[in-house]
TrEMBL record:
This is Receptor-like serine/threonine-protein kinase. It comes from Dipteronia sinensis. Residues 362-443 form the Apple domain. The keyword Kinase applies. GO terms for molecular function: ATP binding; protein serine/threonine kinase activity. It comes from the Eukaryota. It is found in: Membrane. Keywords: ATP-binding, Disulfide bond, Glycoprotein, Kinase, Membrane, Nucleotide-binding, Phosphoprotein, Receptor, Serine/threonine-protein kinase, Signal, Transferase, Transmembrane, Transmembrane helix. Belongs to the protein kinase superfamily. Ser/Thr protein kinase family. The chain crosses the membrane at residues 462-486.
């Protein structure tokens, strides 16, 4: 009994299920009846769109009960006015939709190529309504068995696995066509096609004319439709073979319900079903802009929506009619400025001769200009080959004079395949994403022009570089020869000369002179070691610089260098008397300067009184001349690298003498700039490029000089300067006053500037020029000497480097430094991490 009930129940369910998704011969579907696919995904039945009373037969997602967005309509152009529509399979084996009241056939499926024996219509879970032979019952996925399927005749909706394209065997075109309006399913203005001409592309047509070319397939997406690209949920498929060309998309997770719709306004939109809200959500719409209008700019022009006007001839092309073009009528397009060299017939030989494939340019012929990130031009007339590489593609294009452009067919994996254009290039636009490279043929002379316009200085630069290299080589040879001759001379003259030119002091006498280097005799400590005062047996006073032992230099090199330094003789340089090199001691013996160093005077309120303006001038000019000698006039080019007030000594007549020069590094006359791992210098006097990048040049000394000038005039230290109004350092303060035309306020009160204020202002001006941020802006020392001595007009200074204490590196950050507690000024020497 139970079994019987069970059996009845089971068979009922089974019958219900089969009858629901299938229409057999002799069965009818009347208005009001619903066909449901086996998995209950889709439904088919009669509906009235919007507020209309007309009845249409359509298919929709079963879940979509509220909106009922119909995905397919059978009788879209022939509505039934009442509810007497009947769908059945006719005796000929086709689906027919009739009006029972009048027996009119309003719609029928097209005749199949073969006659069915026992036709049935089935609504599949894909939303496809298929007509097939009943004995193929279990094979719902093989389209070859279908006599007819609704998927071949889309309405405005592309469902997953539905194809648009052309079947070359049957000649059937499947395309989307919009509804006329939201409540009128009849065929509207817009259609979305795969145009099989040339290399197939997707086009949106309005009526018969191409409105928008969505472009050819590049392996990932249609070139003009980068928005619709594969994502984790779906895959896009494009197939092109002898039998057919089509595009479709597939959904990985079948519980995801999606539809792509061409709406009545020609906009392609994608929707996904939101289970939570039971409604459709638009995931993306193909947003188009003016540049997407097909051939807006005419031939050989590109469209860039960010430009006004948005159309521009391709590089090397000019408007065919300038007048029309300027009136924003771009339809005439552009033509080549310079004809191609390659003429039909002779091109092949030319390219053979110059091996074009390896080089972009080819002498006596044409080359290719690369455009990046563009939507490829219309491919209706291209030649293509899916298997050849880009290099072979280029070869093919250059070997045929009619070929005017080429590009990769497939952008995946670095590009493959080949597209060749033989006609004017139409409908190119810039693409923010998903654009491709396009190579356009140009006469080589035009390419040269373009290159020259893009890099106007390149030729000049090449000439300059070549000249520089040649003169550098020449300079090195000459210098090498000089050094060689000099060394030879030195060797041949023996140590006798050595001794006479540079007296060697013995350690004992130096120790005696300095009270055995007692602290009482110490004058100070610089970056290279302490300095002691000494008195020799004959009464001569000397200053002894005892160099730190950590120098990596060998003794012989040290002597050589000292000899060089000793040859630097100038009124404004401290004189080197000799050296002492015993027991790995290295000492330099200088003349003694009784008046101490400049900082002893300028930063002291009472001692400053001694320095009137004429003395200041004398000191500043003296330092400038000494520095100029080091930079230019000496046989060696010396960059001091640690010029500061405490390194300027004063003799009895208050003449400045620069000390400690040549110790940091001396090098050949050609070199003007070098990078160093070891930064030697004193914060406050070090230029930004030296402090930060370790790049020193004569201009870093100029910077230090500028600081010194401002310090002398203001009587304030640059480092440690403070002011109640701001936290700028001395340079910043001077710069500020200068810009506010209050530079007089910078001048120290002890200077009686009433007589010479304009001259003092000039010196401030020069100081500011010397401390400018950019080394290239700073004058060199010869200019400085001229500026200080003349009254000509000066350029306006730019912002100084390090004008605020805050943007100076803290001295604490140095990795190694020499500190001296006796002075509050510290010479640092740090290793830059490089
Ligand atoms: C057509 O209409 C007639 C009369 O109203 C009715 O008897 C018949 O069943 C209808 N046919 C179908 C297929 O509904
Ligand atoms: C579109 O083309 C077809 C066939 O070429 C033609 O019959 C029809 O008149 C054209 N329609 C328009 C609007 O030009
Ligand atoms: C498919 O999607 C549904 C709903 O979004 C989700 O619950 C399910 O886990 C997914 N299945 C797979 C295999 O990803
Ligand atoms: C494409 O190029 C390959 C290799 O050169 C060639 O074998 C093939 O025939 C070409 N295909 C077409 C359609 O020209
Ligand atoms: C160049 O290509 C055109 C178009 O494909 C073809 O008609 C012509 O024969 C080719 N010329 C040469 C020299 O290969
Ligand atoms: C388009 O124009 C903008 C603005 O002028 C420019 O930055 C951009 O590089 C242009 N794009 C192309 C592909 O030329």
């Amino acid at each position: 009994m139970l079994l019987v009930i069970y059996f009845l129940l089971f068979s009922f369910v089974r019958i219900a299920a089969t009858t629901l998704d299938t229409i057999a011969l002799g069965q009818f579907i009347r208005d009001g009846q619903i066909v449901v696919s086996a998995g209950e995904v889709f439904e088919m039945g009669f509906f009235s769109p919007g507020k209309l009373r007309s009845r249409y037969l359509g298919i929709w997602y079963k879940r979509d009960t509220t909106d009922r967005s119909v995905v397919w309509v059978a009788n879209r152009d022939t509505p039934i006015s009442d509810s007497s529509g009947v769908l059945s399979i006719s005796g000929e084996g086709i689906l027919v939709l009739m009006v029972n009241s009048s027996n009119d056939i309003v719609w029928s499926s097209s005749k199949a190529s073969r006659a069915p024996q026992n036709p049935v219509a089935v609504l599949l879970d894909s939303g496809n309504l298929v007509l097939k032979d009943d004995h193929d019952d279990n094979d719902n996925n093989n389209p070859d068995k279908f006599l007819w399927q609704s998927f071949d005749y889309p309405s405005d909706t592309l469902l997953p696995r539905m194809k648009i394209g052309r079947n070359f065997v049957t000649g059937l075109d499947s395309f989307l066509s919009s509804w006329k309006s939201a409540d009128d399913p009849s065929q509207g203005d817009f259609t979305l096609w795969i145009d099989p001409e040339g290399f197939p592309q997707m086009v949106l047509k309005m009526g018969n004319s191409t409105q928008i070319r969505l472009g050819s397939w590049n392996g990932l997406h249609f070139t003009g439709l980068p928005q619709l690209k594969p994502n984790p949920d779906n895959t896009l498929v494009f197939v092109l073979n002898e039998k057919e060309v089509y595009h479709k998309y597939e959904i990985r997770n079948s519980s995801l319900l999606v539809r792509l719709v061409l709406d009545p306004f020609g906009i392609v939109e994608r929707f996904t079903w939101r289970y939570r809200t039971s409604s459709w959500a638009q995931i993306n719409a193909v947003v188009l802009d003016g540049c997407d209008n097909y051939a807006l700019c005419g031939s050989n022009a590109g469209c860039n929506i960010s430009n006004t006007p948005q159309c521009e001839c391709l590089t090397g092309f000019v408007p065919k009619s300038l007048g029309e073009w300027n009136q924003l009528d771009w339809s005439g397009g552009c033509v080549r400025r310079m004809p191609l060299n390659c003429k039909n017939g002779d091109g092949f030989l030319k390219y053979e001769a110059v091996k074009l494939p390896d080089t972009l340019n080819c002498k006596n012929g044409d080359g290719f200009l690369k455009y990046e990130a563009v939507k490829l031009p219309d491919t209706s007339y291209v030649w293509f080959n899916k298997s050849i590489s880009l290099i072979e593609c280029k070869k093919s294009c250059s070997n045929n004079c009619s070929c005017i452009a080429y590009a990769s067919l497939d952008v995946r994996e670095g590009g493959s395949g080949c597209l060749l254009w033989f006609r004017d290039l139409i409908d190119i636009r810039e693409l923010a994403e998903g654009g491709q490279d396009l190579y356009i043929r140009m006469a080589v002379s035009e390419l040269d022009n373009i290159e020259a316009r893009r890099h106007p200085n390149k030729k000049k630069q090449v000439i300059i570089i070549v000249t520089c290299i040649i003169s550098a080589i020449f300079g090195v040879l000459v210098f090498g020869w000089i050094v060689y001759m000099w060394k030879k001379k030195l060797r041949s003259q023996g140590s006798r000369k050595d001794d006479t030119e540079l007296p060697i002091y013995d350690l004992n006498s130096v120790a005696d002179a300095t009270n055995n280097f007692s602290n009482k005799n110490m004058l100070g400590e610089g970056g290279f070691g302490p300095v002691y005062k000494g008195t020799l047996m004959d009464g001569q006073e000397i200053a002894v610089k005892r160099l730190s032992k950590c120098s990596g230099q060998g003794m012989e090199e040290f002597k050589n260098e000292v000899v060089l330094i000793a040859k630097l003789q100038h009124r404004n340089l401290v004189k080197l008397l000799g050296c002492c090199t015993e027991k790995d001691e290295r000492m330099l013996i200088y003349e003694y300067m009784p008046n101490q160093s400049l900082d002893y005077f300028i930063f002291d309120i009472t001692r400053r009184e001694i320095l009137d303006w004429s003395k200041c001038i004398q000191i500043i000019r003296g330092i400038a001349r000494g520095l100029l000698y080091l930079h230019q006039d000496s046989r060696l080019r010396i960059i001091h690298r640690d010029l500061k007030a405490s390194n300027v000594l004063l003799d009895n007549d208050m003449n400045p003498k620069i000390s400690d020069f040549g110790l940091a590094r001396s090098f050949g006359g050609d070199q003007t700039e070098a990078e160093t791992n070891r930064v030697v210098g004193t914060y406050g006097y070090m230029s930004p490029e030296y402090t930060i990048d370790g790049i020193f040049s004569v201009k870093s000394d100029v910077y230090s000089f500028g600081v010194l000038v401002l310090e002398i005039i203001s009587g304030k230290r640059n480092r440690g300067f403070c002011h109640s109004d701001h936290n700028l350092n001395l340079l910043g303060h001077a710069w500020r006053l200068w810009n506010e035309e209050r530079a007089v306020e910078l001048i120290d009160k002890s200077l009686d500037y009433s007589a010479a204020s304009s001259e003092i202002l000039r010196y401030i001006h020069v100081g500011l020029l010397c401390v400018q941020q950019g080394p290239e802006d700073r004058p060199n020392m010869s200019t400085v000497v001229l500026m200080l001595g003349s009254e000509g007009s000066l350029p306006q200074p730019k912002q100084p480097g390090f004008f605020s204490e805050r943007n100076m590196p803290e001295s604490d950050s140095s990795s190694s430094k020499h500190l001296s507690s006796s002075t509050n000024e510290v010479t640092i020497s740090l290793l830059q991490p490089r």
